[in-house]
Automatic annotation (TrEMBL):
PROSITE patterns: TAT. The lineage of its organism: Bacteria, Pseudomonadati, Pseudomonadota, Gammaproteobacteria, Pseudomonadales. This is Twin-arginine translocation pathway signal protein. It comes from Pseudomonas jessenii. InterPro entries: TAT_signal. It comes from the Bacteria.
Length: 181
């Protein structure tokens, strides 16, 4: 017989704080390790100002899942490319500190040693199914760790702002566009 939730001991505040601090230290160490070891290239990918090749692998897998229902399947490659260009433009205009934090998030998601345990996606992003990515997003959105919930929120806001800032997205949401002056 499996114990019910009421039968299992609750995590104390102190235990939760210790776990959160440990998780924060782990993520910070992993991000710093990636930066120092050269795993995360700081060189932008060809045709981009800030997005790196590793970022593109992750984002090209993530964006189609996030845009499901807003873009038809035949227009998805064009939407992904446009969203990446808009995201790159937005990231290029962030403060240096905010860009650094965003790149650390992308580094953690790009490194195999952190990607598997944190996302549940143990292989490369290119091989992850849409269901795997949905499960990862759901896992982070509903995590007991505020750091993962903040990561989910950041990813969602970055991608959605990049997509809905594009003219081709406006018809789907009923926005006629800015008024003519």
């Amino acid at each position: 017989m499996t114990p019910s939730l009421s039968d299992t001991p609750a995590l104390s505040r102190r235990g939760l704080l210790k776990f959160s601090l440990g998780a924060t230290a782990f993520l910070a160490t992993a991000g710093l390790g990636a930066s120092l070891s050269g795993c995360s290239s700081s060189v932008p990918a060809n045709g981009f100002v800030t997005l790196r090749s590793g970022d593109l692998l992750f984002l090209r897998a993530l964006i189609p899942v996030m845009l499901e229902g807003a873009v038809t399947a035949e227009r998805m490659p064009e939407a992904v490319g446009g969203t990446l260009k808009s995201l790159d433009y937005s990231l290029a205009h962030l403060s240096p500190e905010m860009l650094k934090l965003t790149q650390q998030l992308f580094d953690v998601l790009g490194m195999a040693v952190t990607r598997g345990p944190l996302t549940g996606i143990w292989g490369s992003w290119e091989n992850a199914s849409a269901n795997d990515i949905r499960a990862f997003l759901d896992r982070w959105e509903n995590s007991s760790l505020s750091l993962l919930r903040m990561g989910h929120s950041s990813l969602l806001q970055l991608v959605m702002m990049a997509w809905y800032g594009r003219k081709e997205s406006w018809a789907h949401c009923g926005y006629p566009g800015p008024p003519t002056v």
